[in-house]
């Protein structure tokens, strides 16, 4: 009897949770599970804004995959996916001469920055999207601050954050926390530093309750953050940004958080996408591909026909992974599958270490310390799902 | 009766020691002493190679001037000297509208990098010469290492150190110590890093005993350092260095330690100089200027007519400051002055935290741990001279 091969691409929230589920629910020999990821570690995307500002070390935002995956149950291959062939059912990796074949493919390759065609953004801006990229943002910013002592140019200590969505606001919150320490380190008067948040949409944190949005923006403005809302960036240069209307903001550090799109590999595989993301069916399958499942930022899930899709979050990716871990077992055993339903448990956006805003359940608003505590609980819960209480104790920050 | 005005420019080893001496030996009202320095702190030049490599924090290489100078005895002005007028006996500062007048002037303005006309060096290389400059070297290097994760270009983790004199070798020694930690931080295999030391002269550490030179180079080669001795740098570009003969070494970080020259302000004052340094008389006076004393890196002291001048070191600057602190008091009181004599107590060059080579007294050689301990004792002695045992306890690293 042939053992089915399940191949999982990407160890983000979705892929890692699928692998954990299969590891737990499959009996030995029931399927051969392989997980491919380009790094030896999973990174906790919801915390990347912290090392990007330097308020915590990047090691707090990653964990070794082999600390949560059992190598006897799941084969782990550290490599980069270069292409997917849906005809031959094979996946090509960068460093392996032989492609990997699959019976079931789970794609959780995450997202890439969406620049909306803004000129110069890809070349000149930084992106909060991986351990490598946030470490580079921190180091770049610190290098610019160190140069200020000799060159005294204001743009060296000006930081422009493009996008006032979730990541943008959380990052600005961390920057506000970091600046006093950073200014002491480089002998710079705090009031010389400029943090500028630029957003094309008419509001900060779209989708959030207006009371909470006011709380967040009042807090950040109070700390000196400048907001340019309803103001698209026309161009990003190596000297800063040019706003629509012509105003130039000179800044040595520009960080773009304005949006994400699906991974190009999915598009290139001939799977139908919208901005690189795949509108999946009730079982999270790609249209026309019974054996291909798409989860996380590469997938699009609609609440109902006429509504906007759920935004790409760690929360939905985790739920998709949990669902798929069970559903694939059921499919292999009985040929049956359940239908995925997303349960929104609420959202919390941090504003630095001690402040946050959030909604719990459907409508319960939280602000300040309470919201900040809730954010920490959510992070600890993710560690618990992955590695139980021992991982919480080892990696959790209290 | 007119109280004489003593103006000290620069709070390096020489200037600070002069101020300390005057503070100690002068009776209240006997003279008006003013110390001008561009920073609020003195930096311990002999330790700057450590923060430049990142093996210690730059705060360990500086101390607040007001922690060692009593403001009732010595006026301290934090400002930058822009020019000296020897005719009107006035010194102009950057931020003060009125110039400062003096009866006696002590110039201890230190040195500037000597580039020997090497093209592109001033524009593209870094220099170990102040807290600001070494902090920038550290941050630049770390930023280049962080970029390696994304760009994988070998030149990002290649460091060229120009000059194999005292500072060059000490800096290379610190880099060797720092690399394992730096590579862990940025997920880089240690063997990928290149440290290249380039020296135009036919030997490393000119003036040092050949046994000690062998000990040092063997140790550093063993740690992977590449030496290009007898090899002048023809040009420094933004991509690295081009050696005489045409070989190019691509390196994102080039640090020049190949030599120093006197401060240009001394030259511009119309005082006779050789490469910006003033050949002083036995009382450390500038030729033709009875009331101007030059100490530290701006001064040239010859053992005798036909010998080479003493190299510019913290040791000679300290002795000059000690001498001048007493001699100025004697001059004011009795119109008499002693003659300066340099007592070479030995030299120790560190090779990272645990290794060093040195000569104590005239001929006693030290290597390894013993030499390293001696280096620490020398550093503690400087703190003791400045601020007694309390400063040793507060700032000393044991």
Automatic annotation (TrEMBL), chains A, B:
Q: Which domain of life is it from?
A: Bacteria
A molecular function GO annotation: NAD(P)H dehydrogenase (quinone) activity
Q: Some GO term, biological process aspect, for this entry: which one?
A: aerobic electron transport chain
Keywords assigned by UniProt, alphabetized: FAD, Flavoprotein, Oxidoreductase
- A Pfam short name: Pyr_redox_2
Q: Which InterPro entries match?
A: FAD/NAD-bd_sf, FAD/NAD-binding_dom, NADH-Q_oxidoreductase
Q: Which cofactor does it need?
A: FAD
List, for all copies, the residue spans of the domain called FAD/NAD(P)-binding.
5-321
Q: Which family does it belong to?
A: Belongs to the NADH dehydrogenase family.
Q: What is this protein called?
A: FAD-dependent oxidoreductase
> What taxonomic lineage is listed for the species of origin?
Bacteria, Bacillati, Bacillota, Bacilli, Bacillales
């Amino acid at each position: 009897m042939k053992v089915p091969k399940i191949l999982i691409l990407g160890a983000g929230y979705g892929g890692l949770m699928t692998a954990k589920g299969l590891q737990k629910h499959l009996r030995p020999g029931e399927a051969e599970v392989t997980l491919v990821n380009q790094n030896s570690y999973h990174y906790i995307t919801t915390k990347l804004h912290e090392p990007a500002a330097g308020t915590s070390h990047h090691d707090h935002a990653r964990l070794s995959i082999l600390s949560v995956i059992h190598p006897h149950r799941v084969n782990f291959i550290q490599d980069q996916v270069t292409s997917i062939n849906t005809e031959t059912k094979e996946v090509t990796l960068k460093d392996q001469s032989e492609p990997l074949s699959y019976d079931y493919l789970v794609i959780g390759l995450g997202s890439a920055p969406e620049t909306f065609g803004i000129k110069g953004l890809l070349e000149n801006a930084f992106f909060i999207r991986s351990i490598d990229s946030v470490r580079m943002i921190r180091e770049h910013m610190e290098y610019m601050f160190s140069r200020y002592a000799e060159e005294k140019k204001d743009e060296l200590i000006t930081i422009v954050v493009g996008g006032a969505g979730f990541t943008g606001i959380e990052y600005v919150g961390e920057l506000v926390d970091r600046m006093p320490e950073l200014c002491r380190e480089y002998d710079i008067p705090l009031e010389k530093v400029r943090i500028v948040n630029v957003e094309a949409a008419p509001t900060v944190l779209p989708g959030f309750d207006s009371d909470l949005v006011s709380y967040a923006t009042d807090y950040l403005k109070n700390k000196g953050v400048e907001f340019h809302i309803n103001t698209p960036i026309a161009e990003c240069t190596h000297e800063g940004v040019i706003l629509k209307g012509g105003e130039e903001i000179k800044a040595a550090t520009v960080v773009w958080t304005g949006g994400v799109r699906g991974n190009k590999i999915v598009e290139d595989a001939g799977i139908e996408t919208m901005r690189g993301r795949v509108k999946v069916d009730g079982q999270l399958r790609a249209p026309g591909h019974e054996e291909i499942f798409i989860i996380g930022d590469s997938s699009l899930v609609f609440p109902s026909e006429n509504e906007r899709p759920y935004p790409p979050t760690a929360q939905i990716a985790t739920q998709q992974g949990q669902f798929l871990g069970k559903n694939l077992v059921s499919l292999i055993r009985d040929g049956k599958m359940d239908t995925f339903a997303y349960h929104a448990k609420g959202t919390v956006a941090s504003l630095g270490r001690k402040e946050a805003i959030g909604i719990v359940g459907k409508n319960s608003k939280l602000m300040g310390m309470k919201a900040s505590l809730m954010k920490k609980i959510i992070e600890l819960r993710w560690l618990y799902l992955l590695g139980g209480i021992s991982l919480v104790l080892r990696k959790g920050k209290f």
